[in-house]
Specification:
By secondary structure, the protein is α+β, with helices and mostly antiparallel strands. It has helices spanning about 15-25, 30-50, 75-85, 150-155, 225-235, 255-265, 285-295, 330-340; strands spanning about 60-65, 70-75, 95-100, 105, 115-125, 135-145, 165-170, 175-180, 185-190, 195-200, 210-215, 245, 265-270, 280-285, 300-305, 320, 325. Bound molecules: 2,5-anhydro-1,6-di-O-phosphono-D-glucitol (AHG) and manganese (II) ion (2 copies).
């Protein structure tokens, strides 16, 4: 089918979409819409910076390290500052937490506090930024007890408590993927008018797939269930699965999730035996939880292998978790392999 451009009168903007969705909720005050609007403004600014790249001198390393001991890119810091500045003044937030900042970020005294908390990974896939591959911003919204100055413990809530999760992809198109617990919708930034337009309504992950995503260089550190699963995929038509598999690994979680939302697949950044202090690479509060919410809302599954990601009770704001998600049938198979004692 050939795609034709829609006339502007058919287009639904993100703002219209959210306002119409909120109208259906009895206690919606419009605050959430304003909060989301500020997140979106930050992401448009980030999109612009990422797009200008070397022209405005934002590529390369900043020479500093974050709490995880990872070397920060200049854009890790710039995008973090953009998010904080776009969100701290609005009066919708009790506080924020960022992958790039050690402790939760307080709302400056001069601004009112609100009823939400936002957690974010301001630049996901930042190792790809200098080679001009897709990067993104991931965010998660929780409710905040009103009138309290939130401490770290107030952020340590299960993924099931998220009221909204989303990510913005800075790729060939800039796209926003969003859930408020009522399915997943995708919006494309129309650069000419500066608005996100609904282009991917009710995204659903196909249950069947023949595509997996994993960093194969870590193979020697994997646990037996993961080894077995990948071996069987690679054995292809002649192996126990009786079909050939394809592999993709962008090394930008946002891009790998977006591909899986569109055409299915399974993603693994599993527990590995390198360092028991670091069970997996991806961060629960800024990456795993928001993506798990989106994946489940699109009909997929998200697990550590041992438990549902959204059910994890967090103990550290920067904790890492093993992550396996995507097409339902494949994730179920992996969970089954983890449950078989002979595999462990
Ligand atoms: P970040 O850039 O926010 O630190 O996240 C990078 C993550 C994620 O986007 C990706 O899936 C994974 O790291 C890639 O890991 P490898 O470098 O091990 O492939
Ligand atoms: Mn990340
Ligand atoms: Mn990051």
């Amino acid at each position: 089918m050939t795609q034709t451009a829609k006339s502007h009168s058919d287009q639904v903007t993100l703002t219209q979409f959210i306002i119409e969705q909120q109208r259906g909720l009895p206690d919606a005050s419009g605050t959430f819409t304003l909060l989301l609007n500020n997140i979106v403004i930050a992401c448009k600014q980030i999109s612009h910076r990422v797009n200008r790249g070397a022209l405005i001198g934002v590529l390369g390393s900043a020479g500093s390290e974050n709490v995880q001991g990872e070397v920060q890119k200049k854009l890790d810091i710039i995008t973090n500052d953009i998010m904080v500045r776009a969100l701290d003044w609005g009066g919708h937030l009790g506080g924020m937490a960022s992958e790039e900042i050690d402790d939760p970020i307080k709302i400056p005294k001069q601004y009112p506090k609100g009823k939400y908390l936002v957690l974010f990974d301001p630049l996901d896939g930042s190792s790809n930024i200098d080679i001009n591959l897709t990067v993104g911003t991931i965010f998660s919204v929780l409710r905040c007890r009103e009138g309290v100055e939130p401490e770290t413990e107030d952020f340590l809530r299960k993924g099931t408590e998220q009221v909204c999760a989303g990510f913005v992809l800075y790729g060939p198109s800039t796209m926003l993927v969003l859930t408020t617990g009522n399915g997943v919708n995708g919006f494309t930034l129309d650069q000419d008018i500066g608005e996100f337009i609904l282009t991917h309504r009710n995204m659903r992950i196909p249950e069947e797939t023949s595509e997996f995503a994993i960093n194969m260089s870590n193979q020697r550190f994997w646990e037996p269930p993961v080894k077995r699963y990948i071996d069987e995929c690679i054995a292809g038509q002649e192996g126990p699965r009786g079909k050939n598999f394809n592999m993709r690994w962008v090394a930008s979680l946002v891009a790998d999730v977006y591909r899986i939302l569109n055409r299915g697949g399974v993603f693994l950044y599993p527990f590995d035996l390198r360092d028991p202090e670091r069970p997996g690479k991806l961060r629960l509060m800024y990456e795993a939880n928001p993506m798990a919410f989106i994946i489940e809302q699109a009909g997929g599954l998200c697990s550590t292998g041992a438990e549902r990601v959204l059910d994890i009770k967090p103990h550290d704001i920067h904790q890492r978790v093993p992550l396996i998600f995507g097409s339902k049938n494949e994730v179920e198979r992996l969970i089954d392999y983890y449950q078989q004692p002979t595999n462990n």
